[in-house]
């Protein structure tokens, strides 16, 4: 990728509605910066730009022992890139082979990573593969994988994103056949594997108290769209942690200025002008 093209992408994500600090996105040599820029471009609906940037990350091998105190690990960055590449290909082609391949690779990373996974719901990355298979007319195969996951996870009691997503997926299939009662029972069972908060317990009780089966199912299904709590908890930063991180980031920005890197949008625009001269 040419430097000018990269700078355009960086400028775009640094100046959108949710601007990102330049030190997080402007270093092309850091593949994690490319990961962030590519995923932001996808959120901005710049599918072509996202594809161009994320393709540079596709073959990176992450350090599976990387577990930073704050921010995403290399494994998390890579899994999110693979997930988003799958979504881009699905949007462009509407065929499932390549998206399913990338989602399966992302799932393997999620399984292999032995530290707290803060970036996303591991189970949701896995079940997205089944959703695409279902959309491609492979529902029976997808359901077989969901049942196989339940069998594989039956000994893992407590919070379990894979068991949760498998049960919800099977419940959705039951509802599509009109069996709303069984679908509701499956989602209620799924929440035994979820880290429920008081708000979740309240909403689930309201759903359980609903007499009409389809309405009950729809209330349960709505609960699955609400991220009541993180699946995995890491250290919550204290005020001292925040101050320390601010000082470290200030030092990084000063070092970037001294090394000729772009500290902010104004610096980046100056680099654009120099390239044009």
What does this structure look like?
The chain is an all-alpha fold. 66% of the residues lie in helices and 0% in strands. It has 14 helices and no strands. The chain has helices spanning 3-14, 22-25, 31-43, 47-54, 74-93, 97-112, 122-135, 139-152, 161-176, 180-190, 198-208, 213-223, 239-258, 265-276. The radius of gyration is 22 Å and the shape is globular. Residues 262-266 and 268-277 have low confidence and may be disordered.
Q: Name the poorly predicted regions.
A: 262-266, 268-277
What is the β-strand count?
A: 0
Could you estimate the helical fraction of the residues in percent?
55-70%
Beta-strand percentage? under 5%
Protein structure class = mainly alpha
Rounded radius of gyration (Å): 22 Å
Number of helices: 14
Strand and helix order: HHHHHHHHHHHHHH
Give the SSE map:
Elements: H1 3-14, H2 22-25, H3 31-43, H4 47-54, H5 74-93, H6 97-112, H7 122-135, H8 139-152, H9 161-176, H10 180-190, H11 198-208, H12 213-223, H13 239-258, H14 265-276
Helix pairs in contact: 1-3, 1-14, 3-4, 3-5, 4-5, 5-6, 6-7, 7-8, 7-9, 8-9, 9-10, 10-12, 11-12
